Amino acid sequence: MRLDGRVAVITGAGSGIGAASALAMAKEGARVVVVDLNEASAKSTVEQIEKAGGQAVAVRADVTRAADNQMVVEKAVATWGRLDVFFANAGVPQSPQNVEDVDEALFDRIMAVNVKSVWLGAKYALPIMKKQRRGVFLITASTAAIRPRPGMQAYAASREPSSP
After folding, report:
1. Residue 115: helix, strand or coil by DSSP?
2. What's phi and psi for 141, nearest 5 deg?
3. Catalytic: which of 43, 124, 155, 158?
4. Does the structure show a pLDDT above 60 at 164?
5. Three-class SS state of 91
6. What residue numbers bound the domain in which 149 lies?
7. Is 124 a catalytic site residue?
8. What is the overall mean pLDDT for the chain?
9. For 83-142, how does the pLDDT look when each residue is reduced to its tens digit (9 = 90+)?
10. In total, how many domains does the chain have?
11. CATH number of the domain that 23 lies in?
């Protein structure tokens, strides 16, 4: 198993790409911290991992808050003594609409979840990885960043492929 003994934090792991990634990493031997704003969804992913023989814990967190990101990283280290993978996957989509019709609150939410949370995850995960002298920081991007779809300008800007 390629991730045997490794510890992975995955944000937005209650559904979609995050849940699929959590299941795949657990299948490869990783112990997974399943992070989601929806606690029931996070617990559902953990149940699936455990049913398949893996190890995971569910953590309800708002990835736009520094304290929650710090708590998630501390939970991984307190539970399993290390942090090897941080997958900043949580994201907010945008329904197509004209730029002049985009509500400022929606724009702010998209940027907070899709951009700020990546920085916050890195802020707390990377010092642990540097101390261990190993680790991987992954970010979900989107082809929308290089081929924007009409009416999805805030989302496209928020999913620019980059690194922390």
Report:
1. helix
2. -115, -170
3. 155
4. no
5. coil
6. 7-158
7. no
8. 92
9. 999 999 999 988 889 999 999 999 999 999 999 999 999 999 999 999 999 999 999 887
10. 1
11. 3.40.50.720
